[in-house]
Amino acid sequence: MIPPRFLPLVFALAALAFPALAHASGGNYVFDGGTPAEQATVRSALNASAFNWSRVPAQIVIHIERGGPSEATPARISLDASLLDSGRFAWGVVQHEYAHQVDFFLLDDARRAQLAAALGGVAWWAPGATSSFAPNGTLKHAQLTSERFASTLAWAYWQSPENCMSPKLAGAESGAIKPAAFRALVDKLLRSS
Q: Which one, of 132, 34, 155, lies nearest residue 85 by Cα?
């Protein structure tokens, strides 16, 4: 029998031994790949944001692979391990990709239309793309309203000088609306869901 005073240590060691089962307070996700340090970067990124990622009703699989693209599809996020190895610099990208899950699971066409009016962009998703969620080369990243939404959510809920989604660093992709106004709009839209 394990003495009660050692139980916290046992639980901490179990979490390290089985990182794919760990869930941070900010969201419902599991890891597919990545080192403990890379997984910790993801957890830290999500926990740094003031957005409640747990609003997303699905469990998200976060796939970490060296040299792969950082992108999102419904219930799946792929992150480049090399990017995660950069530490806090990666946090904005992690939040951006998880923000796509907010789009996939919490927005409908009516909510997207309200957001598009505030965010601008040419189209929500790339027209004619093999995946309706990814740029297909006909439009630039910042022209896709879905990307503007994800970047703005990442910036509006974590306004740190270290956030690579800052309007100053993201080519104005996240600068169409003031953070407070964006948060108020998102909160209003998600309350009605």
A: 34
The structure tokens listed for 48 are: 């740094």
Strands ordered across the beta sheet of 71-73? 29-32, 60-65, 76-80, 71-73
Q: Rg for the chain (alpha carbons), in Å?
A: 17
Q: The whole model's pTM is what?
A: 0.83
Q: Measure the CA–CA gap between 111 and 7, rounded to whole angstroms.
A: 46
The string of pLDDT tens digits covering residues 95-123 is 999 999 999 999 999 999 999 999 999 99
Give SS3 for 133: coil
98 contacts 153 by C-beta, under 8 angstroms: no
pLDDT digits (tens, 9 = 90+) for 7-36: 344 333 333 333 333 333 589 999 999 999
